[in-house]
Specification:
Layout: H1 2-8, H2 18-27, E1 34-37, E2 43-47, E3 70-76, E4 81-87, E5 93-98, E6 109-114, E7 119-126, H3 136-140, E8 148-151, H4 156-162, E9 168-171, E10 176-178, E11 181-184, H5 187-202, E12 209-215, H6 225-232, E13 236-244, E14 264-269, H7 277-289, E15 294-298, H8 306-310, E16 318-325, E17 333-336, H9 337-353
Parallel strand pairs: 3-12, 3-13, 13-16, 14-15
Antiparallel strand pairs: 1-2, 2-12, 4-5, 4-9, 5-8, 6-7, 6-9, 7-8, 10-11, 11-17, 14-16
Bound molecules: zinc ion.
């Protein structure tokens, strides 16, 4: 959990993923044979096959193929957040969203404004009157993102000296274990980064060539994954991500998408990608063999990096492995440990058997 906590506490909105990338590089020393940062900023990490010593190999004595199966794991490392858009005459900041927060969840939030020199604490609130002065009409209104301002508690001259348009703004929230779950901001999608790293750490032998790719700018239209896939040219691309888990009061059961604690989600399709049927069945069989809980799921609206990977170049075989997340795209995203570990264990099982 230490690594996951570090991952979620490191800010990285679309286009500003460098801190997360540096953390991953530092935390994976010795795990990969080659690493590469592409022009967009995605981190591509290659681990060559680690075949079982010959005497341990069962079967016909067939040698390992000259070109091993190339498996790409796509984990987006960006989180939803904001960039500073405007500094007004009093030093209040207006923000540009990068990724989709529901503004109903943005009242009275502590934020961090990450400037070139330092990280400044601030308070995010919509402009307008406090509850004491607001009319009944005012109180019903849900403000647009344009109405939110960040207050840095500093005079305008100092704000102008420290802050620039384009600086990253993220919400401050704690990482907490709640019952059998973890609750934090940006579990979407740092859990995927964690799953990939932890799964590879657990591997002893594998015949496939693994490309763990930590992609950029997923939250603003899956922009980094396509170019990364074009570089790797994988035989199989597995996208790791979160998905909706709406098994909570007020949502009909047929719209739950996943159920908490029922295991890793095998995404049959979402609105922008279709999982390769053979891969889906392979994952399901592996889960059964290794007694890992899984649930099939379909997401009628929404998508992941699989959307751009699948249609890149002459097309790629994709599989989307998801972890159901309650309260997704809030700063209290909740993931059940059974589901999280099931995703990781299924990944281990696949990488160990893929060839
Ligand atoms: Zn995501």
């Amino acid at each position: 959990m230490k690594l996951l906590e570090k991952l979620v506490q490191t800010p990285g909105v679309p286009g500003r993923e460098d801190r997360v990338r540096d953390l991953i590089l530092q935390q994976t020393k010795g795990l990969f044979d080659q690493t590469h940062v592409d022009a967009m900023g995605s981190l591509l990490c290659c681990r060559k096959p680690r075949p079982r010593p010959r005497k341990l190999q069962k079967g016909s004595g067939k040698s390992i193929t000259a070109s091993p199966l190339k498996v790409m794991l796509a984990c987006h490392m960006d989180q939803i957040g904001f960039l500073v858009r405007h500094i007004d005459g009093k030093g209040f900041l207006r923000v540009q969203p990068v990724g989709g927060f529901d503004t109903r969840n943005l009242f009275a939030r502590m934020v961090t404004v990450c400037t070139a020199k330092e990280d400044l604490p601030g308070v995010l609130n919509p402009g307008g009157k406090p509850v004491h002065l607001a009319s009944a009409e005012d109180r019903k209104k849900v403000p647009e993102i344009e109405e939110f301002v960040v207050d840095l508690g500093l005079p305008v001259e100092q704000v102008n000296k420290k802050v620039r348009v384009g600086d990253m703004v993220v919400i401050r929230a704690s990482f907490t274990q709640v019952g059998n779950t973890v609750v934090s901001q940006c579990l979407d999608n740092r859990i995927a980064c964690w799953e990939a790293i932890d799964a590879i750490k657990k591997l002893k032998y594998h015949d496939c060539e693994i490309w763990a790719v930590f992609t950029v700018q997923e939250e603003i239209g899956c922009r980094g994954a396509g170019p990364a896939a074009a570089r790797v040219q994988p035989d199989v691309a597995i996208t790791l991500d979160t998905t909706l888990c709406c098994d909570t009061p007020g949502v009909p059961a047929e719209l739950a998408i996943t159920e908490q604690g029922k295991g890793a989600g095998l995404m049959v399709m979402d609105s922008s990608a279709m999982t390769d049927l053979k891969l889906l069945e392979e994952f399901e069989a592996l889960a059964k063999k290794n007694k890992i809980p899984v649930q099939r799921t379909i997401l009628p609206r929404g998508g992941t990096d699989a959307s751009t990977i699948q249609r890149r170049d002459m097309g790629y075989r994709v599989m989307t492995l998801v972890c159901g997340t309650r309260y997704i795209h809030t700063v209290t995203e909740m993931v059940h440990l059974v589901d999280l570990y099931a995703c990781r264990d299924l990944l281990v099982a696949y990488l160990q058997s893929a060839k």
